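Quality-control log, excerpt.
Job 1 of 2 completed; input and output follow.
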Amino acid sequence: MSRAGHCDLHVHSTCSDGTVPPAEVARRAKAAALDAVALTDHDTFAGIAEALDAGARLGMRVVPGIELSLPHAGTFHMIGLGVDPADARLRAVADLLCDGRGPRNLA
């Protein structure tokens, strides 16, 4: 009998407000015996390549993701999983939101 997959599909790294670098996210997921981990930093794909590389070395499935901080009656957070960090439209939205994080964080 196969067991259900264990994963964490909402993890941040030091590329946004997490506490460890993207490669360490993959290493800790492997150490925790997870089957997969999704790196979903706020409004950036900056750590995806590092996390994917580390995951490949470790035999850990890393799902590229993002958490978009959308302005809607305050801030609405939307998680994207299995996204393509090279998609120009998605990258433009992420860049726009990331550029707005500084002023939002001061309020």
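Job 2 of 2 completed; input and output follow.
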Amino acid sequence: TGDILVSMSQRLCFYPHGHAAIVIDGDKNKILEARSYEAGSCVCKQSKWSNLHSFVILRVKEDVIEELVNEGYENPTKSAAVYAAENLMGLKYSLLKDIRVLNDDTPQYTQCAQLVWYAYFKVGLDIDENRGIIVKPKDFLTSDVLEIVQVFGIEPDKILKMRNE
């Protein structure tokens, strides 16, 4: 629960892009993702990701969790998953609307990486590596607060090279 799934093998027509999701209940195989304009943000089975050509599982580093807990925050992985499940389900899909909503209001629109980022941001952790205007799945792969738990279908050296660029 709280892990982040990232695939860089998704395509829109011929344009390669990534996709991201957050595990909201690891015991029940449930993830939350912003899938498409029709579906918006919805709960899916985590096992559907095993059909993808490649993906990476990321997790907040233990020392980051420990530091946040020492500062009085709750464990961000569980808190982000709970926040996502309770507040980010059923949002409309958009690549540009509500990007980087930082106030107390829940966004009405989201895209896959923004949904994952926002869940963590609301519990005190910015997981976007470059802190840019638009959050992309690749930003999670290079984030210094996340660690790689498992890699499927991608050469680990390519991910390490991305992280070191």
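Post-run check on job 2. The chain has a mean pLDDT of 85.
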